[in-house]
Amino acid sequence: MDEDEWKEHAKNMLKAELKRRGIDYEMLVTKLKAIGVDENYNSINTKLNRGSFSFVFALQCFKAIDAKEIRLN
Predict the structure, then answer these.
(1) Counted domains in the chain
(2) Is the pLDDT confidence value at 63 over 90?
(3) Is there a domain that residue 72 lies in?
(4) Has residue 13 been placed in a domain?
């Protein structure tokens, strides 16, 4: 895969986990704040739409939504 394909894959993974849990970006903002991460709707929207975000951000999101497992396929 090239760089753009990796970004697309990362974006789709995180968006799929949010969708499975019925969590929209506003809810994610609230959940991230609850674990001490200061993000806003626009920053989350930008990161997820472009697909280039840090692994730290992804881990924070997975923790905030209480994901126990991450599907890599």
Answers:
(1) 1
(2) yes
(3) no
(4) yes
